[in-house]
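check this:
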Amino acid sequence: MNKSEEDLLFVRPSSGLTKAITMRTGWAVALSAILLPYLWTMVPIMPNIFPGIHLGLAFLIGGVFSVTEAAASALLLIAMPRSGGMYVTVGRTLGPVFGVMELWRSSLNTAMLLGLSSFLMVQSIGQAFTTIGTMTVNASLVSIGALMATVPVAAGTAVAVMVGLGLLHYFGPGLDAKIMTVFQFIVIACMISCVVLFATTPTTLVQGRWDSVWGAGSYANIQTAATTAGYTPPPFDLSQTFLGLAWASMMAPYCLIVYAGEVSEPPKTTLWGTMIAGIAFPILWGSVAFTMQSTYGVFLGQFTAAEWSGYAVPFSSNVALFAASLTNNPGLAAFVILAPAFAVIGSIPGLGYGWISRTMYAASMDRFMPEHFSRTNKYGAPTYSIAFAMIISLAGIFLSATGSWLVVGVSYIATWFMVRWWWNLAEIMLPFSKKEIYNASSVRPALLGIPLISIVGLITGAYMMYLLWAWAATLDPLSMVLNASVYVIGLMWFIGYSVYHKRKGIDANKIFAELPPE
């Protein structure tokens, strides 16, 4: 390769990013994805989607693989300490075409999830006003809650939230990490409060406490509506519990991958933060799921059945609101109800915007996106990539506003499991297909002479294959279309840029044969 061609491999010889994520904040970045609103919303409806499921057992099983995935992820990130999400790791290990398909998968699907999360956050705030207004017999608060529940207000507020969080992201990963750290502490406190409320309320007292919050007869009326809708409480079903793993495995302990090139002391910070996230998932969500189902029992399924039949339930399904319905303390109820909103504020600046902006940034460095996307400001943030993330996130808000939030969520699950399987393949293959990259890693443990990253990658990869099959049980045609479309876009983008590079004398395979500049 001559010198002129070598100069064309990457946009520039250095990244322009800053090492702003520390040991004190890295754990919060890693933990961010497992606290987002979709789990707060989805967990209570799982008994209806998977009749007979044992929620606690499902999250416990999912948690075991959360730990193996955390271990494999940490080892992969230590070997490839570059910002850019799965685009970098998958592209370097499996090949450029997989990397570019992941570029658009992560960008488009994360944007939809970003918009969905902001929309659900606004709804949770509206529900907080409604609940506290009901508790305190304050008609003004109830009216505010009802107003925020309307689609135009919820969508408009969600747009404002996205713009505001995007502007914060402009000030770099250091501020992102601090915001995430503060709010992850708050969300964990909310989750502990939910567990305490569930665990300290005997099942025999649930109806009385519910009626004291939502009005006499409210509990029984929901049960009657569910029965009228044809709902029958199912017995425990182990097969449904295993099918439910597709929803109980929404862990993502690897979110430091977003800022992998902006982490100080990469081996320590990455290993520490990622393993904490992997272990925290089953502890936090397992405790919430187990205590909630133990307290409410079949009422969870009855509530969802009544809601889906068109009965006017007091609120849309949400873990925090089920917990708040067990107390007459307005302050505690408000704190708990706002948990999804706190989770959004603490996650989206880094997890949402970071995932899209850094992926677009890395692709630009590799010359698979326009060069402007790799330009950074004085805070070490890629400004054009942030603007792009802000614009495409509006698609998620639109789909949520049209009532397609469940389709968005299921579509995200499908592509997420697929790419996580790709990522597991990268973990398995790295020591053998990219020896020069793996051998440069400072952490390379082995078991009986076999690289540990390959072992845990194989275990988690087999689990991801099962989850893809289990996900098919909740298949939605529109979800399938969305799922296929993002990969088609990525494939077409790769073909187009490959033709462009060939005309310019740039070999994409050589770009992806090494890590991008730091």
